[in-house]
Amino acid sequence: MLDKTTFEKLIKDLVKTKIKAINWTGGGEPTQNPFLGEAIKFINENSKIEMGMFTNGSLLERFNLFEVIVKSLKWIRISIDAGKADTYDNLRKTNKNNNFDQVMKNINKLIEYKKNFKSDLIIGVGFVVTKENYKEIKKFSEIFKNIDVDYCQFKPEIIQIERHNYKNESTNNNKMQISSDFWLHKVIDLLDEAKEILNSKFECNSYKLDDLIVDVKNYGRNYKECIGSQFQPCIGADGHVYVCTNHRGHKKYSYGNIYESNFSEIWNNLEKRREIMNNINKKEKFCNCTQLCKPHESNKILWSIKTNMKDKNYINNLKDKTKKLSKTLKHINFI
Ligand SMILES: C[S@@+](CC[C@H](N)C(=O)[O-])C[C@H]1O[C@@H](n2cnc3c(N)ncnc32)[C@H](O)[C@@H]1O
Fold it and tell me: pLDDT of 194-205, one tens digit each?
């Protein structure tokens, strides 16, 4: 994890930039870093940067993060991925603190803090649907129907090829996603039942399901450049500034390291960024990229904008849509 000195240097640098939002997340768990609470507080007090967090929720008690979270974050989503304690404890093996009862206790305590501090924090819980846990979709929904979270989000498991070595670049044996049959015949009906149980709390990444079901060749990747990554880089726990969260851990996709330089210098080195993006877009043509990766949805719209820049009707239409959407969308700075 980032050491305190480097983390401090990073946040002092970030608050001077025009960054709109930070999403605290991890290939691991963001709340493991004992300095996180102080960092969030500092950013909140010294900038207009908005913050949100993905977490397993197990360590909120250990570092007493409840107050700083309800006072400083716009949203938090706690990954659960199960409907029963024993499934949870088997599926999300981390350490003994990460058990279902502890996480449920922490969620309830966070809700209490939110009420006591009259906070606007949006609290969500997440369920990544896999072959191992799909039968618990209903059970999970029944639990959270009666708990005061704002939403319950379901999304399909994405097989992440970046987790494997890039030995088979040309064949990409690891690239197979779960078949569309599974989503169509095993999952969709259960999601409909979850919707009935949860009503307005139900949320589903249906665009991911669409891509998994309808276009099993490209999974919706009809763009030729990863432009979305240029709006949402990832600072890894190892200090590297990666192209995206999916490529974290692979130095080939790092623009530089904050142990050697600072974030602003690294981000402003356009030549280095162009070199790496050229490799991804033109040479590799995404062969090392996960389908339905983090920048995927942004890429679809940004590619469409790039290729229609000269079409006045398209652009006017887009401006109209933007006006309408900005009235209804929450947390626009995170998109
Ligand atoms: C990688 S986790 C890291 C943060 C934290 N440790 C947690 O458990 O949420 C960040 C987000 O990615 C999601 N995620 C992880 N693996 C995934 C996969 N294979 N497919 C889809 N989403 C995944 C998680 O559910 C979570 O919303």
Answer: 999 999 999 998
